[in-house]
TrEMBL record:
<feature type="active site">
    <location>
        <position position="333"/>
    </location>
</feature>
<feature type="region of interest" description="Disordered">
    <location>
        <begin position="52"/>
        <end position="86"/>
    </location>
</feature>
<keyword id="KW-0378">Hydrolase</keyword>
<dbReference type="InterPro" id="IPR012334">
    <property type="entry name" value="Pectin_lyas_fold"/>
</dbReference>
<keyword id="KW-0134">Cell wall</keyword>
<dbReference type="InterPro" id="IPR011050">
    <property type="entry name" value="Pectin_lyase_fold/virulence"/>
</dbReference>
<dbReference type="GO" id="GO:0071555">
    <property type="term" value="P:cell wall organization"/>
</dbReference>
<keyword id="KW-0456">Lyase</keyword>
<keyword id="KW-0326">Glycosidase</keyword>
<dbReference type="GO" id="GO:0005975">
    <property type="term" value="P:carbohydrate metabolic process"/>
</dbReference>
<keyword id="KW-0961">Cell wall biogenesis/degradation</keyword>
<protein>
    <submittedName>
        <fullName>Pectin lyase-like superfamily protein</fullName>
    </submittedName>
</protein>
<keyword id="KW-0732">Signal</keyword>
<dbReference type="Pfam" id="PF00295">
    <property type="entry name" value="Glyco_hydro_28"/>
</dbReference>
<dbReference type="InterPro" id="IPR006626">
    <property type="entry name" value="PbH1"/>
</dbReference>
<comment type="similarity">
    <text>Belongs to the glycosyl hydrolase 28 family.</text>
</comment>
<dbReference type="GO" id="GO:0016829">
    <property type="term" value="F:lyase activity"/>
</dbReference>
Amino acid sequence: MGGFSFKKLTFALVIAILVWASSIETCNARRGKHWRHGKAGPFSSLYKKKAKNHGHQGNVGKSKPKPKEKQPLPIPEVPQAPPQKGSKFNVLDYGAQGDGNCDDTKAFQAAWADACKVEASTMIVPAGYEFLVGPISFSGPYCQRNILFQLDGTIIAPTNANAWGKGLLQWLEFTKLVGLTIKGKGTIDGRGSVWWTHSILDDPIDNEDLLVSLLNITITQSPPVSSSMESKMPSTKPTALRFYGSFNVTVTGITIQNSPQCHLKFDSCNGVLVYSLSVSSPGDSPNTDGIHLQNSQNVLIHTTDLSCGDDCISIQTGCTNVFVHDVNCGPGHGISIGSLGKDGTTACVSNITVRNVNMHNTMTGVRIKTWQGGSGSVKGVLFSNIQVSDVQFPIMIDQYYCDHSSCTNHTSAVAVSNIAYENIKGTYTVKPVHVSCSDSMPCMDVRLTDIELNPAPKGYHMYDPFCWNAFGELYAPTVPQIGCLQQGTPSSSWDPTETGCPA
Ligand SMILES: *[C@@H]1O[C@H](CO)[C@@H](O)[C@H](O)[C@H]1NC(C)=O
Ligand SMILES: *[C@@H]1O[C@H](CO)[C@@H](O)[C@H](O)[C@H]1NC(C)=O
Ligand SMILES: *[C@@H]1O[C@H](CO)[C@@H](O)[C@H](O)[C@H]1NC(C)=O
Ligand SMILES: *[C@@H]1O[C@H](CO)[C@@H](O)[C@H](O)[C@H]1NC(C)=O
């Protein structure tokens, strides 16, 4: 009897050890040198051959540069597109485990390195898996055009501080690409809660104290969760998904959630299309913009749901020809142009249209915010057909933007002109209209048409519409009456050609 159960026990132990060892083995597979042999896909022999020739061109990832192969020329040549145009590269074939636990970064790097070389190739991140991927750069400039990043699975970010070094500006980065598309039903999950708890008071990027003080609310800091963590997350928080220096990029279908900071950022891009995107993070997660645009032109964002803790869409300097329509925003801080002109910088923003937007439970609705002391201009902005419900400040222009209690006064300002608000309707909880323009450079050509804003039943302390140094046209009647907008042009107007921005 005793011998029998001893055997059983030994057997169980052996099995347990085998299972344990194989799990170690599995996780190590992606780190080891032989990952290509481990889970060889249909293209594996191809990879082996090509890896030798093109190993240096992928330029993927910053973590560990491979030992340099001797390059024949200092200027890398753009590779000829190999014949297999449209090939597919599945991260599973490169050793990705997709178990939410093993680090799949290397598999992603390797799949990308091969996808990069083929015009109109597809990199596949399949459904039904959860890939743990560390900071990674999918970068050109030597990649072929029109690559499709088919994202149907879930990509999750590391939550241990070590993976982030001293802090990085982004987690998943796509740079210097032409015609790249990210498409699918998948999810990018930044698992940002480990970052948010540290930051409310440490990081005054955009705490919006002005509005908070108007509301007479005290921010209470969440209790730190650091006791359960090995070490503190770096103070620089990454954007979840960032595009830089790219042309004609598309993001569609996917969900981006719980970013440590901004969810989706386009910087220095020309030709951006975002639709059927979903962004989701808690309303109290700090600095978690939905979509952030900077130095980017010809941008179309539509049919998208944005819930986050900061601006749903933030349009920064250098943006022109931006069209946003059919977007749901809330919770969040609304759709904002700015803040612009911080630290005396010049900012130029023009030709922005925001149409057919529902805002629910947001701080501001449609807003322009500039710092004192800047220069440049914001011109040619249309906010049309904006439905608000329980929005603190539906219409706002603030040329005294300041993210802490007081900022130094300056005479120069980012000039604001040709701004139209039409068909803005719904309920507010603090102040329906706040248009506060520079003393030295009044806002010009501000047009308000079909404004119908009623106090929400749950509003606390309601304020009347406020304007300061704002000139333009009011198309009455409005609800409430807006008596503060000055008709016509100011006697001492500024010259739009002298703002330092393109005409
Ligand atoms: C702000 O709240 C404090 C305490 O609740 C109250 O005493 C004060 O009058 C409030 N101030 C305004 C401007 O509502
Ligand atoms: C981007 O798309 C536009 C419109 O389809 C096209 O005219 C332009 O050449 C494209 N840009 C690049 C760099 O391919
Ligand atoms: C303004 O931007 C829109 C895209 O939103 C574009 O179609 C239009 O041509 C632009 N207007 C000018 C004058 O560039
Ligand atoms: C800035 O100007 C405002 C309005 O004129 C004034 O109330 C405020 O005290 C000034 N702030 C500083 C720091 O000078």
